[in-house]
Design goal:
This protein is of the alpha/beta class and 220 residues long. 50% of the residues lie in helices and 13% in strands. The chain folds into two domains: 135 residues, Response regulator (Rossmann fold, 3-Layer(aba) Sandwich); 79 residues, Arc Repressor Mutant, subunit A (Orthogonal Bundle). It contains ten helices and six strands. The chain has a six-stranded parallel β-sheet, sandwiched between helices. The longest helix has 15 residues.
């Protein structure tokens, strides 16, 4: 018999963790080897247990899921992470995928979908809830409503745009560029104004379309 897929469950609600553990216990090829209640614990448990697949909630105390995903994938590019959350907003979806999640499922998914996603991600394949896949495809294919202004982005604005495309928050961008968060907010506002975009997600997708970044996190 082949080795089972070892899974780490990360969620701050004990009832969710127990429910997932009970569900997966019925699958002969999957076993839960650990649990974590926040992003910091997820990092520690990942290093200690080396799970095959990590099920990651996004909204948790101390450290959220997106930051944990980013940390884990930076230290292990082969980490296989499935986001399991109630949130399908642009502000959650795109940063999570940019941070390195291979799968993104909503908590109202059928149990069979979760099991299927774990197996897919274990094989290194992407697994996206239909709502999420449709959202990403729509955003990637949607042209700007208006052409960008003739005023080009400054070198610093371009640097901020590339970091937005990597899913970084304003504070993380400020730390990366050694500037204040207020300055970052000003740059973001200028970028959106110049490119006639409505949100950070649209800015990140613009960077993808223009070849300034890619879905695997690389930048030009």
């Amino acid at each position: 018999m082949t080795q089972p897929i070892n899974v780490l469950v990360v969620d701050d609600h004990v009832i969710v963790r127990r429910g997932i553990r009970a569900l997966l216990s019925t699958e002969p090829d999957i076993q839960v080897i650990g649990e974590a209640t926040n992003g910091k614990e997820a990092i520690t448990q990942t290093e200690a247990l080396i799970p095959d697949v990590i099920l990651m909630d996004l909204v948790m105390p101390e450290m959220d899921g997106i930051e944990a995903i980013r940390h884990i994938t930076q230290h292990n590019s082969q980490a296989r992470i499935v986001v399991l959350t109630s949130f399908a907003t642009d502000e959650k979806v795109f940063p999570a995928i940019k941070a390195g999640a291979l799968g993104y499922l909503l908590k109202d998914s059928e149990p069979e979908e979760l099991v299927h996603a774990i197996r897919q991600v274990y094989r290194g394949e992407s697994s996206l809830h239909p709502t999420i896949a449709r959202k990403l495809l729509q955003e990637l294919s949607r042209p700007p409503q208006r052409p960008p202004t003739t005023e080009p982005l400054t070198e610093r604005e371009l640097a901020v745009l590339k970091l937005i495309a990597q899913g970084l928050s304003n504070q993380e961008i400020a730390d990366e560029l050694v500037i204040s968060e207020a300055t970052v907010r000003t740059h973001v506002s200028n970028i959106l104004s110049k490119l006639h975009l409505a949100s950070r997600t649209q800015a990140a997708l613009y960077a993808l379309r223009e070849g300034l970044a890619s879905l695997n996190g690389e930048v030009e």
